[in-house]
Amino acid sequence: MSKKRIILIVITGMAVIAVAIAAYLRWQLKQGRQTPPPAGVSVLIEKVALASELPQGFIVWSSNRSGNHDILKMKLPEREITSLTNHPNAEYFPRISPDGRYVVFARAQKQWVPHRNMALWDIILLDLESGEERLLAKNGNTPTWSTDGSKVYYQRKVTAFAEVDIKTGREQILFASGKGDVKKSVALQTPGYSTKTNKMAVTLRHGQRMIALLDLNGKLKEISDGCQLTWSKNSDFLYYVDHGGKMKNAFYLYDPETEKSTKWLDLPGEYSHEYFPKLSNDEKYLVLGASKGGHEHDSADYEIFLWQVGTAADTAMRLTFHTGNDNWPDIYLTK
Length: 335
What we know:
Mean pLDDT: 91
Shape: globular
CATH topology: Neuraminidase
Strand content: 35-45%
Strand order of the largest sheet: 3-2-1-24
Radius of gyration: 21 Å
CATH superfamily: TolB, C-terminal domain
């Protein structure tokens, strides 16, 4: 065999190996972090808005500052933080009931499950007054409430959309991938449902990539390539995360009547990689998470911010000061 032929074989082999390594790294990234992230430490609070500037109510979110991810609560305006859960398994995506009495959230089926793994979670209902917990649904993720608080909607086994009745515990599959415009095996991420429009707001992944409005017959209305599409309280608009901000991300509003999107919020400071937008029950405030550029939802140093809707972006107030991971906040205001 000639020397030239040997060199060609070596180069070809190295190229194949490089492609294989790149494919493995991409696959590994999609699996998410395989071990819990470091708990982090508290940092010096330099510029904190006065308590009198904050509304009255509370915020809940997921944080690993005590080790694994538990659900925390911050009382407003005092900023007092307490832990609502203390469980060895990771927990995230807390959502407050319309009356402020309950919190529903996802709990991992083992000690650590990365957010990118959407399957190994259960839905837990927590009574804020008594502290009692109840398993609401097995194999469920990213729960949201019905407007009247009687049902919880959720992602079931990755590719289905389901509801469970709070009182009876009766579960029902409302939609599953493979129907209508939705391809089989497509993941239905962070689904929320509007009984007013009879449409789901959903992020599609694993075979189709988009955020869309989806009716229960499978008819799609694509909105963008963003994520975390969320209905407003009265279903008159939606909001979501997309590219186009200072640090890649920004929040957008979508009008289902005009089918137009407009940029809503892009933080101007060093924390401008925004995710997890959630309007308060009176829709006067938006709570969110933002990092300095770290992306992974369950391990990057996201801090919780509160923004009064309609004010300048630079008035958003930072509420947490910790190098650990704080994610998926929700807010309930009493005044």
